[in-house]
Amino acid sequence: MTQVYRCVVVLACLIVTVGVCSMNGVVLAAGGDAGKGKAIFQAKCVTCHGPKGKGDGPLAKALKPPPANFASAVSKKKPEAELLQVIESGKPKTAMVAWKGQLSDAEIQDVLAYVLTLRK
Description:
This protein is an all-alpha fold. It has a single domain (about 30-115), classed as Cytochrome c-like domain (Cytochrome Bc1 Complex, Chain D, domain 2), CATH 1.10.760. It is built from six helices and no strands. The longest helix has 22 residues, at about 1-25. The protein is globular, with a radius of gyration of 17 Å.
């Protein structure tokens, strides 16, 4: 019984910690490194999304629909899981390609961590 109680306490502490961090804007992108993600973003994503992720890259005007603006109110409301899905699988009927298979899972998490910093 004591072991079950300890597990419940640890789980409760974890839930509280995640909740507090998310309320304070702390990026928890499954361990992704935003610094590494920035380098990948600059190499692979800037031409469409722009240097600050506002959807204003050099190719953006030619794209229909336009690339996502990560600083927009709409983007800020998207859950982390949805952003991850788009990075991994792309977005049909847009220029957003699937990065799964082109980037490692760790690199995708790094990009996600960086994209989440652009929401500010």
